[in-house]
Structure formats: structure tokens, C-alpha cells
Automatic annotation (TrEMBL):
PANTHER family: O-GLCNACASE, PROTEIN O-GLCNACASE-LIKE
Low complexity composition-biased segments: 331-340
Listed Pfam families: NAGidase
Descriptive protein name: GH84 domain-containing protein
Domain GH84: residue ranges: 8-284
InterPro entries noted in UniProt: GH (IPR017853), Glycosyl_Hydrolase_84 (IPR051822), O-GlcNAcase_cat (IPR011496)
Chain positions covered by the region annotation Disordered: 313-370
Amino acid sequence: MMEGRHEFLCGVVEGFYGRPWSMEQRKVLFQWMQMWSLNTYLYGPKDDLKHRLLWREVYSAEEEAQLKALVSEAESRGLTFVYALSPGQDIVFSSSCDLTLLKRKLRQVSDLGCQAFALLFDDIDHSMCQSDTEAFSSFAHAQVTVANEIFRFLGEPPVFLFCPTEYCSSLCTPSVSKSPYLLTIGEDLLPGISVIWTGNKVISRELSPESLAEVQSVLRRPPLIWDNLHANDYDSRRVFLGPFKGRPPGLRAHLRGLLLNPNCEFEANFIPLHTLGSWYKGKEEGKGDEEAYSVDRALSAALQDWMKELSLPLQPGRQVRPTDLKPSTLSVKSKSSDSSDNQHGAQPKCPITSSQSTGALASDEIPADPFMSHDLKAGENQVFRSFSHEKTSRRGLCSGRVPLSESQVRLLVGLYYLPHEHGPHAQNLLQDLTWLKGNCHCVSVNGNGKKVAPQKVEEWRECAGRFLAACDDVALLHSAVVNSINRAVLYDLYPYIWDLRNTLLVAKAFICWLEGRILSEGSPLGSWKNCFHWCGASSGAELHGVEAEPWVFKGGLSGEVQMLLPVGTSSELFSHPPPLFPTSRLYNIRPFQQKDKVELYRMVRQLYQRGKGSQDAAISHPDFIGDRCLGASLALCPEYSLVLEDELGVCGCAVGILDVRSFAKRCQATWLPAMRDKYPSRPHGASGHTATKEPLLYFHEEQDYPDSLLYHFPSQLRLEALPELVDCSVSRSLLTTLLTALKANGSQGVFCEVQPTDGLRMEFLTKLGFLEILRGEARPREGVVLGRLL
């Protein structure tokens, strides 16, 4: 155990919202910390019931054994193990009973060998009950009284931390220097107690000695930084793989310590913690700030070591791990550090699914972990099996598993860099998409009524080429992650790269669609440029002109790309749980070409035959189903027809009609007469059989939709996809691309017809915001009409 009240504490806080790490993951964490010279681990996961919600309850014998083993493991590696408790939600400060229960709980942990503690009063209401109001002069007075009492009760341990309710500048009322709460803390809290602080914000982009001087003066002691730079529990679409940055090594002279609160996903924290170790070790050697820590050098060293880690055949939950991994130049051999992750003030992170947010152990190897609920274990075992028992089919998974290349790892880190900053690849991608959007008039149907210089068109095409190549790089990265040998990393990062792959699949298809199809601004149907959007090289949140917390705009790179699309504000089109069975198959969505017609006709005929289960006279003509389902759209408005394909060929399509009224007139004038000649109502040899005549009558009946429908929903669509698709999200991306194109050219609403017996399609569309809009006699034929506004 590290001694010395004035030793700089540097390490990790496990204090985030979400499923706590497993015991095996914590042991790996302690190995990392020892290698990288970190020295402090704070245990305080928000979702450990006995840490926060049920703080009064003592640990069972089984839980005691595991906690004692964890404390011993940390001590054996030279780490200070800090046990944190968060009683602030419902403690009665004036209650002798609550104070006794608090002492009992901490005495139990102290008897297990723990000698460092923390009381956390973050993320709670400032109000007090009546008995507390009568007993204490202020909320701060109540907290200080309890903290001082516990500090003395524990024998004034050398490490005792206190997290105030006002823990950053933006939460102080009216300001840091004038906050009655902080002034009371600084004046009345015993000097041996260290105070936790996060900086100017909950998630501070930078920390500087100047920004800390004021709070140090008010608190009358150097603060301990609880650093949320890599915390991601506030956004289910973001993870941060970038280096420790924005904290000059010279800060150590002004701090009691710095503990990093990292990503919920354990495997995402290799580079953040590795570079934190470089930051700490550099200044410890007495070098100047610039010499002590270079972000680029630290990142390069961390990347080299992570490449070794990624080449290991680790399973979710890290059941298998080598005992020795030698660090590269900027890594360090052995010192001590252990820290815990917690984010102050951030909202709990909604998991991408109820069981897919972090790693888990195999079902037959999961220990009885008191820090993980049994229902989560069961759910995560199910997800683990989906990664362990991967199936192979036409649309299934590739079997080969290989390590990621260095360029792929650098791309991965750049896509998920830091909360206030994108990596170079992500910056270029956003800048190109923004430019393509702003200059789409160069490739519009009529060039906005003006002649566009050929060089401007060529410039647009070159930019589009770069953007499409960048999207392809991400798609290949997605496949590589799915096929990677390190399944632990796949388990933790797959939901994020899958989400970005899908968003870019839509964006890429939309850029491919734009040229020669986007209407000019002079079109009566409107313009895409009226759609709300934001984007920047660093972060969209900065467009407000002030530094905003990263959760103001959610989604990270994926969210920013989404918001640059015409349907970007429709989050239900983009935010969905990933599939249980990840597939590495490459997909592409592109505009329809006439050569696709034969394959599309074959596909819809195959789908019809599967639905019917047998042949019938109605489909004896090979073109009949294709003409009925797709023919008119492909012939009269091919510009709103999209094709989904994979390595094996066409596997889906989406066809749309921008203006059903005008389309119906054209259809009556040209398409239907041709079809009536091709499919007469009384075919030769039919002998009047009803089973044969009824389908053929489709082209001989009047098809009309009420004005009340077309007023709000002027556009129509149809979606077809092979059922063998393992990842149904590509069907969602296909439909979203079509909606994006329709919205770009001015559509305000779209509808489609679904057979009432097609429950899967009804559910699929309902999740994307479609609702039944026609009932009873107003419905055309026998289909159910679903619609959504754009």
C-alpha cells in the first residue's frame, strides 16, 4: 500500500454509470497500471447497488471475499485501493442511525484491508429534509459534519477523498469564488481530507494552473482532479480511444492527484490509460513540460503496445490473457497505480441494448460477482454466445480471424478520438460532406437555372470520390473488427463501429444519388439546404460560441454525419440496437441502373414464390411479379430507385415515387396501357378461372388514393430484401437512404402499403416511425397503409 499523505495520486476511477467491470477485468487493469506506473484505483461504480442505492447494506460473506481479494490484488501491485461510498441520495445527515450505518459499512471494508476511502456527494439534489434543516445551517455544513466525523472514525487515513455537490466551475452558484457552498467546504472540512474537482466543466477540454488557482484558494487545499475526459456513459453512440490530452504535466504542482474516469467499455481504455501513464511518468522524471509529455509520442507508443494486445486471442471478459506484455519505449515497467472511473454530473448512459454495453465472461466461467447483477449476467451470456457460436451462411459471417493492421487501428482511434476533438480522418470526412452539401447545386438537375463551370462540377466529383473512399475505409474497418482475433475488443467496440458503418452507408449512398437527381433550389418542391444541420472540424457543440458539455449534441462522428443529412433529425431512423450475430459482409447501396432490372425482377419473383409456397398460373409469365411490384417505378421514376448489394450480388431494393398524383397521371397515360396489352384480363387458355384472372386484373383496375392522404403524404415507397440478411440494419439503411432522397427533393411525407398478415414488415416500419394512416373503407384494396412525415 502506498504511504504518504502528499504523494501525487494518479490512476483510475471506476465510477461510471452502467454495468461495473468484472473481477477479471479489474485484475487486468491492475496489471496495466503497474506497467504504466499509475498508483491509485478508486472503486465507486454508480450501478453497484451497495455503493449508491443500497449503501446502508453491508456486504455478504461471498461479497466480502471478493472485495478482499480485489484489495489484496491491488496491494500486491503497489496500488492504493480507494473504496468510495455515495450515500447522498437519501442520507439523513442529522440521523444518528444513518451515521452508525455509514460507519458500520466503512468499518467492514476497512477490516478487509482497505486503508483509503472516499465519500461522494455528486449528482444529488441540494435540498434537505426538515430535521436536517433544523440541525444544520446549510447543505455544505451537513456534508462537512458527516465527512469530518467519518474521517476521524477511520483514524484519519492518509487518503480520504470528498466529492462535493458543486464539483466543477459550471455547477457553482453564483461562481467559484462566491459560492457559499464551496466556501463552507474550504473553511470547515478537516485539512487532511482532499476535495475532488473536475475542472471548469463536468468534462473539461483543458485544465491549466490558472483555472485551478481560484478553486484551490477557495478550498484552501490543492484539489484532486476527477478527470472525465474519456468518460462515455452519457452517450450510447460514443466511445473515446484517443490519448490523454489537454493537461500539461506541470499541473501536478497544483494538485493532490488526478484520476481518470474512462470509458464504460473496458477494452476501449488501453490507449487512454497507457498515455496517462506516460504523462505521469514523464513529469516524475523531472523533465520540462514539453519534454516530459508529448501527445504524439505517447500515442505512438500506446498504439504499438495496443497492436500486440489486439493480436491476442482474447475472449469477451478476458478469460485468456498472457502474464507478461512488455511495453514499448514510453511505457514503464513497474510502479503502482490504481484508479476508478466515475463521471460526475453526466446522465446515465443508455446501453445500446440491455445486455450489450460491455464485456462479459463465458457462461461456464462467470464467477459469482457481487458487483454485477444476475440479470445482467444472463443477458451478457446470451450476447457472448452470439460471438462464440458464429454461424456461416450466404449472408453470414466470414470465418477467418486476423489481427487489425496498424493503419486500421489508427483509423479506429481517429474515428473515436476525444469528446471535443475528432481525429484527422473524421475531420476530413465531415469537411468533405459539408462541402458536398453546400455545393450540391453544381450537380443538380438543372444547375439551379445557371450554367455551372465544368471545373466546378469536376471539383465536386473529386470531393465526392474522396468521401466515398473514406466511407469504404470505414466499411472495411467494420469487417476487420468483426473478423479480428481479439474477441474481447470486438465485444466492446462492435456496437460503435457498426453504428458508424450504417450511418456512412446512408451518407455514401446519398452522395452517389445526388448527381443529376437533386432538384435545384428553384424547384417548387423545396431544397435540401433548408434542412437543419451542424458540423465542424472539432465538434458540433462548439457552434454555440461557448464551450458546451459534449452531451449537448449526441452521437459523435456518427451523429454529426447524421445531422448533415436531410432526415438527420429523425433519430429513430439511425439509433437501433446492433444484431446479435455480427457479420463482416460488405454492403453497398447505390442508385438503380437499367442493368439491375433483370436481377430485381428475379428477386421479387423469388420472394413471391416463397410467400405463396407453390407455383400458380398468375406468375407463369416471368415478368409479372416484377412488373406489378417494381415496373412502374423503375420505368417512370428510376431516379428514386435504390439497390442493395453485397459481395454475392443484389439482395434488396427500395423504390420511391416523389409525387404520387403526377406519377398516377403518367402511369395511366403510358405504363398501364402497355401492361394491359402485355397481360390481358382473359389470357388464352384461362377458361375464366378466377385464380388466374384476379391477379391479372391488377393492371385493369383503377388505383386511386384519397386527397386527404396525398395532402400530407405525397410520396410513396416500396422495400424488398432477401430474408437471408443476417444484419437487418442494412434494410433500415436502404429505406433511410430513400427517405433522405425524397426529403432532399421536397417531400413532406411518405406512405406505403403492407399486407395485414405481414407482421414482420409492419413491426419493421413501425420502429422507423411509420403509423397506420388509413382505416376501413378509406383503405385501397386489402393493404394496410402506413405513413410517416419527413
